[in-house]
Amino acid sequence: MPIQTETELYAPVKQYFEERGYAVRGEVKHCDLVAIRGDEPPVVVELKKSFNIPLLVQGIDRLRLTEQVYVAFELPNKGKAPHRLQWEDIRRLCRMLGLGVLTVQFYKRKKPAVDLVCEPTPYMLRHNKRAALRVVNEFHERSGDYNVGGSSQQKLMTAYREKSLHCAYLMREHGPLSPRKLRDLTNNKAVSSLLQKNYYRWFVRQSRGIYHITPLGEQALADYVHVTTAFSPAEAP
Q: How many C-beta atoms surround the C-beta of residue 50 within 10 A?
């Protein structure tokens, strides 16, 4: 069963630091736990029954006192990270905030176990330039804003889907087309790869170098008519 109060975390976390040579006191100047070893800077631990925003806010506030701040909470059921996250997500978040993380697992017949998830070490965020470039390219390759932010479990209108729709639209308007003609009409240099991969199964190779739209493609044009209406009329091939 989950613990009833955060005070149940105190004894195992206290023992964890005492085993590492610290003297420990509880509730020192509004800090849940303070541990000191010799002349080293104090360690502050904030305790909560579960991992949540108030716990992080408390931890950030304690960084005004020392760089050695941990947040501690009960290990969720089956050891999974809370809030449907991965443990690496928790580590990355807390490292960015400068916080260490401890979890406490309780058992029916043996003593609680304290696990160190990450140390409170300074974190330098490295920007992924390639990933950023992919975001910028995806933004500019879309012709409009067809998705509602925050949507989940819905098909999104990506640049790739929009380019596929454009090809299907032109085939419906002009009949079977070659990759070269589609490239000229859409200004999409990767149109040959798009047709060959045929990810959505909207196209069929009618003959060598000639492609046409499938019934699935026709249905897609009907489903995304709000997108296809934005396509400029193309000259007949």
A: 13
